[in-house]
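Ticket #4471: structure export looks truncated?
Reporter: QA, pipeline team
Priority: medium

Steps to reproduce: submit the single chain below to the structure queue and open the exported record.
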Amino acid sequence: MKTVERIALCLVTSLAGTMAHAAEEPCRLTPLGTAEVAAVRDGRTLMLKDGRELRLVAIEAGDESRAALEAAIGGRSLRLAALGEAKDRYGRTVAFAFAGEEPQSVQQALLAQGQARVAARVGDKSCADGLLAAEREARRAGRGLWANPNFAPLPAENLRRLEAERGRFVLVQGKVLSVRESGGTIYMNFGRRWTQALTATMLRRDARRFAAAGVEAKRLEGRRVLVRGWLEQRSGPTIELTAPEQIELAE
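Actual output as written to the record:
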């Protein structure tokens, strides 16, 4: 077996193994080779010795998680694998990273420790399911960042808290009171007045893609859900849904 084929098989098998309990299909990645770390910039950004900047895809983590990232890497070389495009619009490498011979990705390790949150867009349901499961377990156990009340999911009806988090990546939890359509947009309202509680929006053209991933907006009416994404302020607090992994049934 060729070296590239061995790397591909290793990456697919290892990540699939760590996510098998939560995903119906394996998380399939494209190997990008190996890299040496020159420096850790923050909780999800690394400078590589070949001059590239690496952003760990599929998670959100800030400088408060920098020490955890340094420990997860442990001075070892990284095996890199892409999910979709390997570069972002800034020219940075965006990938999953595996430290040394570890079967678990660095992202999975940070999530399991409660040192990261799953990003708004992962790009693949199989990969997202495993990452979300790791985050949920850490959140239930109160590990890492989840021991800090400031990182707990925000109540969807707490307007003051939502306004204070405007422009930030957040998790918001609450009951969907109504689902309405207007023009090309579907609105999931968490309050009687959409200016006084969270509203999650979805483009109508994306509804079929969400439904294929098990997220049907109308069926969420009356259910408690957890929404993740960047909190915007329009007429009221809003999170735009562009990927199915942004919304899940609350426990």
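Status: closed, not a bug. The export was complete when the record was re-opened. Leaving a note from the reviewer for reference: Residues 45 and 55 are 5 Å apart (CA to CA).
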